[in-house]
Write a structure and sequence with these properties.
The chain is an alpha+beta fold. The chain is built from 20 helices and 16 strands.
């Protein structure tokens, strides 16, 4: 039954993909307008580029390293005397994420996009015209699409009134309402943050600043009042006060910083270096170098207010706990706030709510069930061990902030192997500490180690063993979001082997001298062509079918197919022996000689670059503009089988190649 369901599901997926191939994909629809319709000479206004993006698609921005791979949105303006540009086109609230395929931080828009170019009006009538290119990709279908558009804006003159009417109509395209997909994503991210924050709150309980206070505070509530019921009510209020205090902190962060602050936090060197230093200072404190405490006058004033009794006393007792526990909870709370400071105003509030609920939970439960106190482990040296372990983790996590600044500004301080070397040393030392081989001045004697402590030591040292191959270029995919990208690695053994092997499919026409082969290449040492006519001529000469690959430099899913499907020995052998490969890059910016330019029958635009001509060929010949897209052809350019798109099923790809060869031989 299960296999039948799988077959049906695959069939439905193929049907859906077939429908998608039958039409040109336009996932991002752009509108362009001026921020001020009645600008005067000397005014500074914005050209506003807005887009409505289809569900499951995202469009790349222009504020990340272009060397990573995805195609950044680019703009060309027709300069004239009526205006002067100020700076470059800037994205508004683009999302930044670490991409495992490109091994770096990329920036893109989902659902809606907005970019702005500031200009100064020099004279009227004003005319601003130009073109822009962009790339959109879909996580659901695995497709990437190149797009381009033109714009012309006017103030004054005969065309202005008509243009203004068109702008008003286009404004309706971008709706203020959130799509159902966006709401669903927000709900998922909030739930994830709440769970992680809750777990962080539980971890904070087992620190030397908090754990010993549980029996002290619970005993206070159970014995300071003759009325046990009232004491329990006060204990409840004490727990709610802890939640309220931390939630207020999250609310203040949300209001004062908001979502726009996220980009500053994630990319600018100043906050990242500051967070790195804070983590290192807390780590030194956890190791016993010094003690971090709140100013005495703040704590003393809060303690003095505890004597008021009643609900006021319970509140100030909660406030005192927050202040006293700062030296242990500070880095945990700070990490939650840093992680949630952008994206949504609700995130810092939800983060602090999750943390505080877990943090307040033991105080409330032990007040309701005081007999549990007798079963609670006694404070002792193990609490200090928890603090020292947190210190090692602080060092490891704090490096991430320095790494972000290092990558963004290309300082070259923390290359991949340097970063891994530090982590390896940190976790070796942590393993030795847990085994009792490393001791700090404030540690208790350890005559023997417990089973949980041994288990943690094994986890730490096993993690070290996992990281060691990374020093020689292993990808370490599980850590890809935390360590610098592979491109920063100096000694990459896999790359050296690939470079020295020189193995690839042999093609008698000397493909290494093929057109554009000086800057275009195929993966896994494969040899092929990058010009359609030249590749077809070679296929006829060798009497082989053609494997036509519509690809792109910035196509994430193309790289996934090459890494996971093309690399399979069965696929690689067939590509080398049975086919002549023609790879057409649809996003290549190489400008062709003017005598090779032509006007497209599809959109009426002049195609001046190699990439635009390849993209136009794909659209006009196959009515598809998404990549990756694979076609198996005979010598006349006829399809041997139905084309194939993004599909990580190796067996299906082998069958695709075998069927094409079989039909060619017929």
């Amino acid at each position: 039954m299960k296999s039948k369901i799988t077959v049906i599901a695959l069939a439905l997926m193929m049907i859906v993909q077939g429908i998608a191939f039958a039409q040109i994909q336009e996932p991002a629809k752009w509108t362009v307008e001026l921020s001020k319709k009645d600008a005067k000479v000397g005014d500074k206004i914005d050209i506003v580029f807005k887009a409505e993006i289809e569900k499951t698609w995202h469009t790349y921005s222009n504020d990340f390293d272009p060397e990573l791979g995805p195609i950044l949105i680019s703009f060309e303006f027709e300069e004239n005397a009526s205006y002067e540009r100020v700076g470059d086109v800037k994205p508004i609230n683009a999302e930044k994420h670490y991409d495992e395929i490109w091994e770096g931080d990329v920036s893109y828009f989902e659902n809606t996009a907005e970019m702005r170019q500031t200009i100064i009006v020099k004279e009227l009538p004003l005319k601003v015209a130009g073109t822009f290119e962009f790339q959109s990709c879909s996580d659901e279908t695995g497709m990437c699409v190149m797009g381009d558009d033109e714009f012309e804006l006017n103030i004054g003159g005969a065309a202005s009134a008509v243009a203004e009417d068109q702008k008003e109509q286009k404004k309706a395209v971008v709706s203020a309402e959130k799509t159902e997909l966006e709401k669903s994503k927000e709900k998922d991210s909030l739930l994830t943050l709440f769970i992680l924050s809750f777990l962080s709150g539980l971890a904070a309980i087992f620190t030397p600043c908090v754990f010993p206070m549980i029996p002290m505070t619970v005993s206070f509530f159970m014995h300071s009042d003759e009325n046990k019921a009232k004491a329990k009510f006060n204990a409840f209020f004490y727990g709610f006060s802890i939640i309220a205090i931390y939630t207020v902190i999250g609310t203040v962060v949300a209001i004062t910083l908001g979502a726009n602050f996220a980009n500053f936090l994630s990319t600018h060197w100043l906050p990242n270096i500051l967070f790195f230093l804070i983590f290192m200072i807390f780590a030194a404190s956890f190791f016993g170098m010094f003690e971090i405490t709140m100013p005495n006058w703040i704590v003393n004033k809060s303690v003095a207010n505890e004597d008021k009794g009643g609900l006021g006393g319970a509140f100030f007792m909660a406030f005192t706990l927050v202040l006293v526990s700062f030296s242990c909870t500070g880095p945990i709370v700070g990490a939650i706030l840093v992680a949630s400071a952008g994206g949504q105003v609700l995130m810092p509030i939800v983060g602090m709510l999750g943390f505080s609920i877990a943090f307040a939970l033991p105080f409330t439960l032990f007040a309701i069930f005081p007999s549990w106190l007798s079963n609670m482990p006694k404070s002792g040296g193990w609490l200090n061990s928890v603090k020292v372990v947190l210190g090692f983790i602080e060092v490891a996590l704090g490096l991430k902030f320095l790494s972000i600044a290092d990558q963004t500004y290309h300082w070259g301080i923390l290359d991949r192997e340097v970063y891994l070397a530090i982590w390896i040393v940190v976790f070796i030392l942590l393993g030795f500490y847990l085994l009792g081989k490393l001791k700090f001045s404030h540690d208790s004697d350890l005559p023997y180690i417990s089973v949980p402590r041994l288990a943690l030591a094994m986890v730490s040292l096993s993690f070290v063993v996992y990281m060691i191959p990374g020093m020689f270029g292993a990808p370490l995919k599980a850590l890809s979001g935390y360590i610098p990208p592979q491109a920063t690695h100096d000694f990459d053994l896999n790359q050296i082997i690939r470079d020295n092997a020189g193995a690839g499919g042999h093609v008698s026409a000397e493909p290494h001298t093929a057109k554009y082969s000086d800057f275009l290449h195929l993966p896994h040492g494969l040899k092929g062509y990058f010009d359609y006519e030249e590749g077809m001529a070679a296929a006829k000469k060798q009497n082989k079918p053609v494997f036509l690959d519509f690809t792109g430099h910035g196509c994430v899913n193309c790289r996934e197919m090459e890494a996971n499907v093309w690399s399979d020995p069965a696929v690689l052998q067939r590509l080398k022996a049975d086919y002549v490969i023609i790879a057409l890059y649809v996003d290549d910016k190489t400008k062709l000689p003017e005598d090779q330019w032509y006007t497209s029958e599809y959109d009426g635009k002049v195609k001046k670059t190699l990439g635009k001509q390849n993209a136009d060929f794909q659209i006009t010949r196959y009515e598809v503009n998404a990549q990756p897209y694979y076609c198996l052809l005979d010598h006349e350019g006829n399809l041997l089988v139905d084309p194939k798109a993004y599909d990580l099923d190796v067996n299906a790809f082998v069958n695709f190649l075998d069927k094409g060869k079989e039909n060619f031989n017929k």
